[in-house]
Amino acid sequence: MNQILLVKLVIPDNVAITTLHTLQHIGFAVETVKRQDVFFFDISQQSNHFTEHIAKVDVLVNANKHRSQVVDRIAPVPGEVQILVKNRDEDTSSLLRLLHQLGFPEIAHVEKGTLWSLVMKDQHPDAIAQKIAAELLANEHYQDWEIVR
After folding, report:
1. Which residues make beta-bridge pairs with 38?
2. What is the CA radius of gyration of the chain?
3. Three-class SS string for the chain?
4. Domains annotated on the chain, with CATH
């Protein structure tokens, strides 16, 4: 079974702000940019323990500056284009081992990514989002990206 943990900043996100300004400066008609960390968990069995406690693990979520949500899938938000960026061949074995030591033995595998949400003025936001992802949000040498629908 798969579970997803979305982690977003509640304080100003300087990376998202800089990305917005850069996109606007190079000519993209982008109104807003938001960024979230995404953790994908392959768990051996559904448990209330996992759902209730994974968002409280401080190596994933800092309660002072983050808000988090456990979901089954990333749902598209009307009016936004979402781009998921993940590192290829990222070694998450240390994170997995740490989560096991913190009381989550049901986690079989974990992956991490960044979810970018863009609001654009353009009539064809998917085409523009593909260009933005390929040129700015993802490094083609070690990252993959996809438009989330």
Report:
1. 6, 113
2. 16
3. CEEEEEEEECCCCHHHHHHHHHHHHCCCCEEEEEEEEEEEEEECCCCHHHHHHHHHCCCCCCCCCEEEEEECCCCCCCCCEEEEEEECCCCCHHHHHHHHHCCCCCEEEEEEEEEEEEEECCCCHHHHHHHHHHHHHCCCCCEEEEEEC
4. 2-148 (3.30.1280.10)
By the 8 A CB rule, do 43 and 102 touch? no
User: What residues have CB less than 8 Å from 63, skipping those under 6 apart?
Assistant: 56
Q: Using alpha carbons, list the distances in angstroms from residue 38 to 8, 14, 69.
A: 9, 18, 10
Using 50 as the pLDDT threshold, list the residues of the chain that sit under it: none
Q: How many residues does the structure list for the chain?
A: 149
Name the token pair of 108. Answer: 């079989």
Task: List pLDDT tens digits, range 111-121.
Answer: 999 999 999 98
What is the model's pLDDT at position 121?
A: 86
Amino acid occupying residue 149: R
User: CA 15, 21, 23, 24: dihedral to nearest 10 degrees?
Assistant: 160
What is the amino acid identity at position 73?
A: R
CB of 135 closer than 8 Å to CB of 74: no
